[in-house]
């Protein structure tokens, strides 16, 4: 058998899934973006899909819930009506009114509620008043704080948080973040513009106060909210990241998204200055279990200076959730956002919580003399004893570059709405709202799994199910083995699946690899679409996966060798071998043949081929290729010379002029 005949029995192409608008090289470029920026490209593809088909875009990317808490909002707007009547009571000039006055205001609210007993929010406002009385608040002081604040006619005083609102939100955190079993003492709260502002203020103040330095080692529990990774890499910080990976697997090779002991053990390194976790995690939505929590607590005893930052925004979606703030309060800075639970991302409501007896304050007091002097000068305009200033109060000042500390603080109407959101849980002994949000995301999870056609993972009481993180490669390995996984890695970018979903099905999901998760993982938000939509998303994911499998299997059929009497045509397929023709043909190697496109236009599905093992062509083909290359080179050289001469002539004319 000749060399060429042998080559014909070796496949030279691998079938690929239908081509996309976004090429692989372009995908590689876009992979460098944050998954939140990459999502915008996917949305544009999905919108294009909407224009050319009856499919509706299903955006399960960003985790903005599609529900809102009604009772605290009804109460907020009803209180606004009462507040305006109080302002006009002082004086009323039509387009101008006075500032609400405190004496007797609680009694006047009762009268207002009697007159408006059927109004939405009236019962809630009665509960608000009664809750304050039960806590020992002066009724007039409590109601006046709410009324004056909802009007927004004063600066925030105290700047860190309103007196009564802080106590209410503190109660909420103790109930929801500490499972009603708080540690001794209390936490100081700083009301901020959502969890993202909290992140900025924390990183800034820890560095300003010498607790973190540029280039320090910082541990990140991964996967995590992408900005925690990106902030750490900013020039100002340049932290050396120590990954704590949720790499624990079940017996079947699937992720359970918990942290193995050897990963958590990394925290014992005293060179690690801070550890940051989103708990429950984002995207996996899994909270620390009791074993993980005990190990972390044990490590803190050995590494007592380690600062823990815990972002607990999804805590209310886990039954009996317990935060690190409950277990290691002295070392923990808690970030909490109201956005997800109450459907209020547009309100920008969050708090930073630091225990009154914390390790960070003690460490600032023990800084070297030079550092203490620097900080004395930094905060000296705020107090005569700046060394006694707590870290959380330094954060308030730092949030306004110290000089503008007198204007710091979250706007007062925002603080009222925050307090009402907190009270909606405190006034609900049955936790009806919380259980409803849990049920919603779990029902959507079930719908997604129905669409995927796979069994639900084992029950885990620590799962919030706000998001789902699915690892394509785990499924590929379990279903088709190493060869299929190798095929995917060699021929596609990890984000190809996302682009395929957006372009072919109008489904927008997010890149799990961008959250520090496995590179082929995908984040699905269960918060922002209706239940039936998730079944459709699951089916779309199956359809996209099948396309890869079909293309791979087509290539595998070639690799398995031809049936007797069939000549493989270099990955094109097989055709009968004529009895009057020798297998070792001298004909040139045929060009790749694409499958016919379905439908019309650029969006029509098509199969493309790529060469993976080039066969040696016969001598005649070699000669033809060589001749063609020589001719092309000669033509290119002639064209370049002509262009250069023209440019030189033009330059000479310009010079003479």
TrEMBL record:
Keywords: Aminotransferase, Pyridoxal phosphate, Transferase. It comes from the Bacteria. Residues 559-657 are annotated as: Disordered. InterPro entries: Aminotransferase_I/II_large, Aspartate_4-decarboxylase, AspAT/PAT-like, PyrdxlP-dep_Trfase, PyrdxlP-dep_Trfase_major, PyrdxlP-dep_Trfase_small. Pfam families: Aminotran_1_2. Residues 212-536 form the Aminotransferase class I/classII large domain. One of its GO terms (biological process) is aspartate metabolic process. GO terms for molecular function: aspartate 4-decarboxylase activity; pyridoxal phosphate binding; transaminase activity. Its cofactor is pyridoxal 5'-phosphate. The keyword GTP-binding does not apply. Its EC number is 4.1.1.12. The keyword Transferase applies. Belongs to the class-I pyridoxal-phosphate-dependent aminotransferase family. This is Aspartate 4-decarboxylase.
